[in-house]
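Onboarding guide, step 5: your first structure request.
Type a short instruction followed by the sequence, for example:

Predict the 3D structure of this protein.
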Amino acid sequence: MTGRVQGVAYRASTVEQARVHGLTGWVRNLPDGSVELEAQGDEARVSALLAWCRHGPPAARVAGVTVEDQEIVAAERDFVQRR
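The system replies with structure tokens like these:
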């Protein structure tokens, strides 16, 4: 996610939303000011999280969301915030 997505509780809110949707994966800030996440689960649930990511928490101003398919990571059991 790009835009004003750091310093606005974007990661913590994403963790909350991902857990509500029963997803596994992670979210982290990147040095360029963007936020990156990996989410795994049912396609409809991942789509619901991505829809939320397009606006984020109230203080965020999301300018863009890029989506890439990735290989499944079988060992993931939760959705966490990374540094």
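Each response can be followed by summary notes, for example: The mean pLDDT is 96.
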